[in-house]
Input
Amino acid sequence: MDRETEDGDLTASVSRDLVFDDGRVARSMSEAAQNYIPVEIYDRLRRQATRVWLVGLAVVVVWAAAIVAAPILKSFGQTSLSGPLYHFYSFICHQMPERSFFVAGEQFGVCSRCFGVYFGLVAGFLAYPLWRPIDDVEPLARVWLFLSLVPAGIDWSLTIFGIWENTHLTRFVTGLILGFACATYIVPAIVEITRNLTIRKLRQQN
Output
């Protein structure tokens, strides 16, 4: 192969590479343009993320508070209020007295493990802004969610196989771990869902 032929092949190769690179750059620029969010919209989404977090926090607080409110109301004879609460939570928990906390002589609306989960949700929502920006919707590694199931699984399995009998404390703590972990996945999920709906609405308006 002579020098001229080699130069021609090299030129053709470089040209193909440049075309490929230009196409890739063009696609990247196009995607960036589509995903671009103006500063004023970005600020709006950040404020929206805070509101979503506050609403989520309010929901889990009310949910957990109602569990404790049921026995307190019953102890004061307010069965017309406590009855519906116990009935509602009966759909999600076995409500076995021997596995439940008591207050004022009446059992909680759910068992100690379920209460640990819901209390963990409250704690997780409260702690979330302390370690991660509320508007950060990057997905977390799912392995941590699965690992949070391990303590509860071990606690439950050891009791089922008769190795040891779990207690209110072990059920509450293992539920607390699971609930806290769930909160760290729920917050970015609801923020992202709300954000996507808002962006879609804005683009439709434009």
Q: What stands out?
A: Confidence is low (pLDDT under 50) at residues 10-20. The CA atoms of residues 28 and 166 lie 56 Å apart. The radius of gyration is 27 Å.
